[in-house]
């Protein structure tokens, strides 16, 4: 700080006002911070936590959004579901899907596999699925679902077989009594191999097990069910009596939206309104729906941490003002003005906030990278987040130092020198 100087003229004596250069201000601020390093570190801890949480939240949100986009892959983008809503439109309407529904849809361009499936409603008196012809046998289950599915529906589910094979068009056309079991159902019924040509009994009807599904990429409920041909189920138990019948369609890449538009008309040109096609969801809507609540919650947490950090800086700066009253009085006596004192303490609190912001930005970035590495994700951090985080710490520090700096500027030199 340049001290005031006296200049004499013929008539008056003029005092040149003191000046506080910006370089001197920054130097004084960092000297005040480094004079008590332990206190400064604890003071900046709140800002470190707040800024670190801010960077980590935005980084993890962006990383999670990117991961959701990657998981919204070709499998989901090539799936179309058609629902039977005939009873909603007309109480006297029959089944919405015609008998040759699979063939009608497979003629559409871009369709790979398509098939109708519905849950069979068994009479309570006939019992459930058993591995023996008598009721109550060990290994039986009355809670196992029986799914009537066309061959195309099973193929559209993209199954992975543990043993055996899926039934085909021949089994469906000739109404064969064959079944494909999910791996969980097979284990429950005690069926571990197909070499003995095992059979299951659905009610009193025997079905030969020709395949066990280990995993599916669509319709995971098939793993907990027994699948039988649709034509066989309709012959034994009749067509479905209420809504709940759906069609699963797998398409080529980029054809799902077009297939969803054309499928109801192709299936029921007389009443396309009896069928409702569900195309793949918009990935942007999926991403925003998943991440919005998480982002808001953690941003509130980051704001709370910043408020705590600001209170800590304000408290420490105010204590420093009280401890350095003599220093303030000496500066004022040597010519420092009130705004110089204000600028000095604002610079110190701003330096604390900036240091906290830099450290918090580093910790937040390391947190995002660490989580991404552990989860085998690709870390995503926007440059604007990294650039704005230290500025956020600076603003927090300056705002926290306003009141202490104002108090310091109001101290009278004479009163300060008496202490």
Count of extended strands: 13
Radius of gyration computed on alpha carbons: 37 Å
Q: N- to C-terminal separation?
A: 24 Å
Helix count? 16
Number of domains: 2
Structural class: alpha+beta
Give the SSE string.
EEHHHEHHEEEHEHEHEEEHEHEHHHHHH
Average pLDDT, to the nearest integer? 80
- As a percent range, the share of helical residues equals 40-55%
What are the low-pLDDT stretches, counting only 5+ consecutive residues below 50?
none
Shape: elongated
Largest sheet: number of strands, sense, barrel closure: 11 strands, mixed
Percent in strands: 15-25%
Please explain how this structure is put together.
This is ABC transporter permease. The chain crosses the membrane at residues 41-62, 297-322, 351-374, 380-403. With 419 residues, the protein is an alpha+beta fold. It has 2 domains: 5-71 and 285-418, no CATH class; 75-281, no CATH class. Helices cover 53% and strands 17% of the residues. It has helices at 22-35, 37-71, 74-77, 86-89, 101-106, 151-156, 169-173, 183-189, 230-237, 256-267, 283-323, 325-333, 338-375, 383-400, 402-409, 413-418, and strands spanning 5-8, 13-16, 79-84, 111-119, 129-130, 145-149, 159-164, 178-182, 199-202, 205-216, 225-229, 246-251, 275-278. Helix 13 runs antiparallel to helix 14 and helix 13 (338-375) packs antiparallel against helix 15. The longest helix is centred in the C-terminal third of the chain and has 41 residues, at 283-323. The model has no long low-confidence stretch (mean pLDDT 80).
């Amino acid at each position: 700080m340049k001290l005031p100087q006296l200049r004499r003229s013929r008539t008056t004596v003029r005092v040149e006002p003191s000046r506080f250069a910006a370089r001197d201000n920054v130097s004084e601020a960092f000297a005040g911070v480094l004079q008590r390093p332990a206190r400064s570190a604890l003071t900046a801890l709140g800002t470190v936590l707040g800024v670190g949480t801010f960077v980590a939240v935005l980084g993890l949100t962006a990383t999670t959004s990117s991961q959701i986009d990657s998981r919204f892959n070709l499998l989901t983008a090539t799936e179309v579901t058609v629902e039977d809503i005939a009873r909603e439109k007309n109480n006297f309407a029959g089944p919405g899907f015609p008998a040759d529904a699979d063939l009608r849809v497979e003629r559409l361009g871009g369709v790979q596999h398509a098939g109708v499936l519905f849950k069979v409603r068994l009479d309570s008196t006939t019992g459930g699925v058993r591995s023996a012809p008598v009721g109550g046998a060990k290994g039986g289950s009355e809670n196992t679902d029986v799914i009537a599915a066309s061959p195309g529906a099973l193929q559209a589910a993209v199954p992975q077989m543990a043993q055996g094979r899926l039934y085909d068009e021949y089994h469906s056309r000739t109404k064969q009594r064959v079944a494909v079991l999910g791996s969980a159902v097979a284990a429950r019924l005690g069926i571990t191999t197909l070499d003995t040509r095992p059979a299951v009994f659905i009610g009193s009807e025997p079905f030969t097990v020709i395949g066990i599904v280990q995993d599916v990429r669509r319709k995971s409920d098939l793993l907990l069910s027994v699948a039988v041909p649709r034509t066989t189920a309709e012959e034994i138990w009749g067509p479905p009596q209420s809504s709940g019948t759906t069609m699963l369609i797998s398409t080529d890449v980029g054809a799902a939206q077009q297939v969803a538009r054309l499928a109801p008309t192709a299936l029921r040109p007389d009443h396309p309104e009896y069928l409702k096609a569900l195309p793949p969801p918009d990935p942007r809507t999926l991403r925003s729906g998943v991440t919005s609540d998480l982002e808001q919650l953690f941003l509130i947490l980051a704001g709370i941490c910043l408020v705590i950090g600001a209170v800590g800086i304000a408290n420490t700066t105010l204590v420093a003002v009280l401890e350095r009253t003599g220093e303030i009085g000496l500066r004022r006596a040597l010519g420092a003005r009130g705004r110089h004192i204000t600028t000095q303490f604002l610079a110190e609190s701003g330096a604390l906030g900036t240091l906290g912001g830099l450290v918090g930005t580093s910790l937040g970035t390391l947190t995002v990278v660490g989580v991404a590495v552990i989860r085998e994700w690709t870390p995503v951090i926007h440059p604007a987040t990294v650039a704005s985080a230290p500025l956020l710490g600076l603003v927090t520090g300056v705002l926290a130092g306003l009141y202490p700096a104002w108090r310091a500027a109001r101290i009278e030199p004479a009163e300060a020198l008496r202490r």
